[in-house]
Design a protein that fits this description.
Shape of chain B: globular
Number of domains of chain B: 1
Mean pLDDT of chain B: 94
Bound molecules: adenosine-5'-triphosphate, magnesium ion
Number of strands of chain A: 13
Distance between the termini of chain A: 26 Å
Structural class of chain B: alpha/beta
CATH topology of chain B: Rossmann fold
CATH superfamily of chain B: P-loop containing nucleotide triphosphate hydrolases
Shape of chain A: elongated
Order of helices and strands of chain B: EEEHEHEHHHEHEHEE
CATH architecture of chain B: 3-Layer(aba) Sandwich
Low-confidence stretches of chain B: none
Oligomer: heterodimer
Helix content of chain A: 55-70%
Chain lengths: 391, 227
């Protein structure tokens, strides 16, 4: 049956679906759920993969070997700098930064500004603003997302608070002047705040002074990244604060591996749901063909050939799967738009991407054909005389 | 008139395991174009079986069977299906309409196999319904129609492709006398005015009298004809 012919059979197919409305609805419902889950899992995966892709290959992170929450001595910065094959180094600390409400923390890092900005070209900033920030020890670089959220503009002085660090005077407020507002390349997440480590360090009480959360290293040759990492770790071997150096991508991958096991579980769940869906719709198709034995006999009597009958049953099965599948993926896509905005901070890249949708369409057809295959073959093989007698 | 249907020593056996059941035992028969033949006989005598063979729904065990000069038993399945669509109209005792489709859609079914565009298919379906006097019931589903009306839809479906041969298996068997008579009127009209060759199985001698010729089948053998 040529594809264009299918159009003329649509009323027939449609009428078949309406024959048992409740059963059809439940079947479509199970397909809907299956594809909703499939597409949401796809969105999740998309978010994970984007995280890994955005991580740099030529950048290394140096952390305490024992635990990444333990700080490194400030003296490590210069020692790392002396290692062969290094282009530049910077450092950052996690300070638990916030503006008004300690529960609404914004990723805030005191950094070695010049090196940091050279190291992260994905951070987009005009030359003028860059210079203005470098020239002001109490300057503040804020991401567009934060500036927009708080209605800030250049020159505003804003009080940054830390839930971890205290100043010598016992307070935890730093008044910083906004000197630049940056975007992230490829519309990446710009919910971030940066300010000068040197100024920050000077204000701290002795007990919290001269600590680095981690050190970022840019290597000269990305292919040597691992070797450079080993050299750095060797440098601090057997010291009280041994280090562990990894590429950003390896770290992201390591992180993703942990989440990846969630991904594997998700994948397994989606497979199970697909399988269940397959059983449900195969059962529906089998029942519906069995009920229609005599009708199929009549169609054959009228001159409908075996391949036409086979195609009609398959088309009906694919139609059911397509309705459920498209509704499910449509709902996921809509949810993705809604959740995507809400999840932007925690899971940037959470969206039902075209690749997932196209793969989903392939699944729709494949599962539809699989569910209809056996009933279709039975309908095709049905002998007219038997079908009419049984009816 | 030349013979449209030609049978010689036609045998049909059903096999179930070791057992074999000879249902048609060497039938020879010619039916000319334009005849209206009533086929009578006790239950189990093989009437439906014969009809199935003539309509290419089943294949004979041995013997000769040609329709319009074509040995239909030798056609491959797909060609046979096509041949059925073009040349034969079936009318069943239980109407056998698709319950989910309107009268019009039911009648349109055989036309789906043609290359006719949708509008033309519709037009022909309506014309057929018009002929059987059901033009005002086109949008009704079978369960919204009386038995007699359903059988008219069945007849409209059988004639919509304008076949030469109509095969009817007890078309009035499930109807009361009045509706049955109306159906017989219609068949007679199709035979006389539209030149359809009709073979009708019936248990009712009154119905058989409408035909131009009566055949009696008993235990798979045709009885001597009384013209
Ligand atoms: N597919 C089949 N397999 C086995 N036996 C069959 C099959 N079809 C028909 N028969 C047998 O063939 C014989 C003739 O059946 P057929 O249906 O032709 O009778 P009939 O004359 O139409 O009877 P009725 O008047 O009751 O409709 C019966 O004994 C029936 O059991
Ligand atoms: Mg019979």
């Amino acid at each position: 049956m040529p594809f264009t012919r299918i159009v003329r059979y649509l009323p027939l197919l449609w009428a078949s679906l309406r024959r048992r409305r409740v059963r059809t609805t439940f079947t479509i419902g199970s397909i809907f759920i299956a594809f909703l889950m499939y597409a949401l899992a796809g969105a999740m995966n998309h978010a994970f993969e984007q995280g890994v892709q955005q991580a740099g290959v030529d950048r290394l992170m140096v952390q305490q070997k024992v635990s990444f929450i333990l700080p490194l001595p400030a003296s490590y910065l210069n020692r790392v700098k002396s290692v062969d094959g290094i282009e530049r180094v910077s450092s950052a600390n996690w300070i638990g930064g916030y503006l008004k409400d300690a529960r609404e923390q914004i990723p805030t890092f005191p950094i070695h500004a010049e090196e940091y900005l050279d190291m992260y070209p994905e951070l987009l900033l005009s030359r003028g603003e860059r210079q203005a920030f470098l020239d002001d020890r109490t300057g503040f670089l804020v991401g567009r997302a934060v500036a927009d959220a708080y209605g800030w503009k250049l020159g505003d002085v804003v009080p940054l608070k830390s839930s971890i660090y205290r100043r010598k005077d016992g307070t935890n407020v730093w008044n910083l002047t906004i000197r630049g507002i940056f975007d992230m390349r490829d519309e990446g997440d710009s919910r971030q705040l940066l300010f000068h480590y040197e100024y920050f360090n000077e204000t701290l009480s002795d007990s919290q002074k001269d600590r680095l959360g981690w050190i970022m290293v840019q290597v000269k040759d990305p292919s040597q990244a691992d070797a450079v990492g080993h050299r750095i770790d060797a440098l601090f071997a057997n010291s009280p604060a041994e280090t562990k150096t990894q590429t950003e991508r390896a770290m992201a991958q390591g992180f993703m591996k942990q989440i990846g096991s969630i991904g594997t579980i998700l994948g397994a769940v989606v497979s199970a749901v697909f399988f269940t869906m397959l059983l449900v719709s195969a059962n529906t198709m089998a029942q519906s063909v069995r009920e229609r034995t005599s009708e199929i006999g009549v169609l054959k009597t009228l001159g409908f050939g075996n391949t036409t009958i086979l195609s009609l049953v398959l088309a009906e099965s694919v139609l059911i799967t397509a309705i459920g599948g498209l509704l499910g993926m449509g709902a996921a896509w809509f949810l993705g738009l809604q959740l995507g905005t809400a999840l932007k901070t925690y899971l940037p890249g959470f969206e039902v991407d075209p690749v997932t949708l196209v793969k989903g369409l392939v699944w729709v057809v494949a599962l539809g054909l699989a569910a209809g295959a056996w009933p279709a073959v039975q309908a095709m093989r049905l002998k007219i005389v038997d079908a009419l007698r049984r009816g | 008139m030349k013979a449209l249907i030609h049978l010689r020593d036609l045998v049909k056996e059903y096999h179930r395991g070791e057992e074999s059941l000879r249902v048609l035992d060497g039938l020879s028969l010619d039916i000319a174009e334009g005849e209206f033949v009533a086929l009578m006989g006790p239950s189990g005598s093989g009437k439906s079986t014969l009809l199935n063979l003539l309509g290419g729904l089943d294949r004979a065990t041995s013997g000769e069977l040609t329709i319009g000069g074509l040995a239909i038993g030798e056609l491959p399945d797909a060609v046979l299906a096509r041949w059925r669509a073009d040349h034969v109209g079936f009318i069943f005792q239980m109407y056998n309409l698709l319950p989910v489709l309107s009268a019009e859609r039911n009648v349109e079914l055989p036309l789906l196999l043609t290359d006719l565009p949708a509008a033309e298919r519709r037009r022909r379906a309506r014309a057929a319904l018009d002929l059987v006097g059901l033009e005002h019931r086109m949008t009704h589903r079978p369960n919204e129609l009386s038995g007699g009306q359903q059988q008219r839809v069945g007849i409209a479906r059988a004639i919509v492709t304008d076949p030469t041969l109509l095969l009817c298996d007890e078309p009035t068997g499930d109807l009361d006398r009045k509706s049955g008579d109306e159906i017989l009127d219609l068949l007679q009209e199709l035979n006389r005015e539209h030149g359809k060759t009709i073979l009708m199985v019936t248990h009712d001698p009154r119905a058989a009298e409408r035909a131009t010729r009566q055949l009696h089948l008993d235990k798979g053998v045709l009885q001597a004809e009384v013209r």
